[in-house]
Specification:
The chain folds into two domains: 73 residues, no CATH class; 74 residues. It has a four-stranded antiparallel beta sheet. A two-stranded antiparallel ribbon has the order 1-6. The relative contact order is 0.11. The longest helix has 46 residues. A hairpin with an 8-residue loop joins β4 and β5. The chain is an alpha+beta fold and 174 residues long. The chain contains four helices and six strands; from the N terminus they run βαβββββααα.
Length: 174
C-alpha cells in the first residue's frame, strides 16, 4: 500500500513500467525472430505453441532459477539479465493504486469512450450513448465518494489525535 494507508517508509514493489522490457511479440512483428527459432542469442530460450487458426505463437522461457515459465515479456536492468515478472517480483501499476486512483482511472476511461462534445454522435445508438454516459456518471460518483471517505477518515484521525492530546495534557497537568 502507499499514500495515507501505508506505513511510513514502507518498501513498495517496483512496477513493470520501471524496468526495461523485452517483448517477444514485438520482436516477432519486427522480424527479429522467426518460426522455429529456439533461442534469442544470450537472452532466453524460445518456445512455440500452435494457434487455433494456423501459425505459431512465440514465448520466452524464463531463465530464472527454478522458474521456466512461458512468458511474453521479460524484464531486467539490462537485456543480458532478463527475468519474468514473478522472478523480478514486479507489480503492475494498477496493483499499487489506492481506491481514489482506481476510481479516477475508471472515470477517465469511461470519459474517453464518450465523444469530446458530450453529445451523442451521429450513428451511435441512443442506448449505447446512454450506457456510456451512465458508466461515466457512476465512475465519477464513485471517485467523489472515495475522496469524501478519505477526507472523513483524515478528519476523524485529526479529531482523535486532538482528543488524545488534550487528555494527555490534563493528565499531566499541562
Amino acid at each position: 500500500m502507499n499514500g495515507f494507508d501505508g506505513w511510513p517508509g514502507e518498501d513498495v514493489r517496483k512496477t513493470t513500467d520501471e524496468l526495461p522490457a523485452l517483448d517477444v511479440r514485438k520482436l516477432m512483428r519486427e522480424g527479429l525472430i522467426g518460426p522455429g527459432q529456439e533461442q534469442l542469442e544470450g537472452v532466453a530460450h524460445l518456445e512455440w505453441t500452435p494457434c487455433n487458426f494456423g501459425g505459431e505463437r512465440p514465448w520466452f522461457v524464463c531463465p530464472g532459477e527454478g522458474c521456466a515459465r512461458r512468458v511474453a515479456i521479460l524484464y531486467g536492468p539490462s537485456p543480458r539479465q532478463p527475468l519474468c515478472r514473478r522472478c523480478r517480483d514486479l507489480a503492475y501499476e494498477s496493483q499499487r493504486e489506492d481506491g481514489i486512483a482506481r476510481a479516477k482511472r475508471r472515470a477517465e476511461k469511461a470519459r474517453s469512450r464518450l465523444p469530446p462534445s458530450g453529445t451523442r454522435p451521429k450513428g451511435m445508438h441512443h442506448a449505447t450513448f446512454q450506457k456510456l454516459a451512465q458508466d461515466y456518471q457512476s465512475a465519477s460518483e464513485e471517485h467523489e465518494a472515495c475522496i469524501q471517505e478519505r477526507l472523513a477518515r483524515l478528519a476523524w484521525r485529526r479529531t482523535v489525535s486532538r482528543v488524545r492530546s488534550l487528555k494527555w495534557r490534563r493528565r499531566h497537568g499541562l
